[in-house]
């Protein structure tokens, strides 16, 4: 069962000898000279533990999506915090927030280490290894969401947990795509889905995700064509996209895809009283063979219905 309590930023993480406290939600990655840790991080706790255990004296940690950054004492944030509500991305590993994305800007949760801890976030008063952690959370959003959101940006470099009956027509490729400079990645991922459409057939990818009942979901989807199918043809040829949620039987509008820039769509659906999972499906269709790209499908924002 998903956890449907309102998600919040991790407010405090206590270690042996000190603690990390939440500084706020910042635009971009505000730490000067920060070092990005390799791998994907499912929570702020994992990111902070990574910085703490790196052995380089890092006193700042920042997480944006699945990307983790560590900074030393010279890495003081270069900007002031934004409104906490701008951090609206649920971590993949727990029910806390891991930054945000508003369609144009990325936001990070930033934490600062305090030697000896503080009254609000005391250190663990034992000789226990620094890998022993104690956490608390602080509310930074009124959003409602389950844990375990989808791999919306293909940051793993693979299709899973998406599925499709068109495996021979789909690939997860690293962006930007050579020859198509407009096909740029959505941070923190470097990958996009590429689908080679058969003319006149509907191509679909889908996955099952946990949801909360009686909640209005408004996922954001970004897509584009490799080339205009009308080029050199008589009359316009239209390739379309549509999002559906199969359990509630809700589909968004059929949208026209274009080449040269990401298009976006934000359909909405309301979950049923007893609904705990959703089957989300993305459909592409073109009258002639064409190549399309899916850049992201983010289950944000989450709003009470």
Task: Output the helix-strand order.
Answer: EEEHEEEEEEEEEEEEEEEEEE
Overall shape: elongated
The structure class reads mainly beta
> Could you tell me the strand content as a percent range?
35-45%
Low-pLDDT regions: 127-133, 137-150, 301-305
Task: Write down the overall mean pLDDT.
Answer: 82
Radius of gyration: 21 Å
How is the main sheet built? 8 strands, antiparallel
Oligomer: single chain
- Give the count of helical stretches: 1
Please give the alpha-carbon distance between the first and last residues: 20 Å
How many β-strand runs?
21
Summarize the amount of helix as a percent range.
Answer: under 10%
Question: What is the fold's blueprint, element by element?
Answer:
Blueprint: E1 9-15, E2 18-27, E3 35-36, H1 44-52, E4 60-64, E5 67-71, E6 100-101, E7 106-115, E8 134-138, E9 170-174, E10 191-197, E11 202-210, E12 215-217, E13 220-225, E14 240-245, E15 250-251, E16 255-256, E17 263-265, E18 269-270, E19 277-285, E20 290-298, E21 302-304
């Amino acid at each position: 069962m998903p956890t449907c309590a309102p998600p919040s930023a991790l407010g405090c993480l206590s270690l042996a000898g000190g603690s990390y406290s939440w500084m706020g939600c910042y635009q971009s990655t505000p730490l000067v000279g920060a070092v990005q840790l390799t791998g994907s991080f499912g929570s702020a706790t994992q990111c902070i533990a990574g910085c703490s255990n790196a052995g380089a004296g890092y006193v700042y940690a920042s997480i944006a999506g699945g990307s983790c950054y560590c900074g030393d004492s010279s890495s003081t944030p270069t900007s002031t915090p934004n409104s906490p509500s701008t951090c609206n991305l649920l971590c993949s590993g727990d029910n806390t927030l891991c930054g945000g994305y508003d369609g144009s800007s990325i936001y990070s949760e930033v934490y600062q280490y305090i030697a000896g801890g503080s009254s609000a976030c005391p250190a663990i008063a034992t000789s226990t290894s620094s890998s022993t952690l104690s956490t608390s959370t602080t509310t930074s959003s009124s959003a409602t969401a389950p844990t375990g959101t989808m791999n919306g940006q293909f940051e793993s470099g693979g299709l899973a947990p998406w599925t499709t009956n068109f495996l021979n027509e789909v690939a997860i490729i690293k962006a930007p795509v050579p020859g198509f400079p407009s096909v740029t990645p959505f941070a923190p991922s470097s990958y996009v889905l590429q689908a080679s459409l058969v003319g006149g057939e509907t191509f679909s990818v889908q996955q099952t995700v946990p949801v909360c009942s009686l909640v209005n979901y408004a996922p954001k989807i970004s897509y584009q064509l490799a080339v205009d199918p009308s080029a050199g043809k008589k009359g316009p040829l239209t390739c379309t996209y549509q999002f559906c949620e199969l359990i509630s039987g809700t589909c968004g509008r059929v949208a026209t895809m274009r080449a040269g820039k990401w298009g976006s769509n934000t359909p909405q659906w309301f979950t049923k009283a007893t609904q705990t999972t959703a089957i989300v499906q993305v459909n592409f269709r073109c009258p002639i063979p064409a190549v399309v790209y899916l850049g992201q499908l983010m289950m944000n924002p989450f709003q009470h219905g």
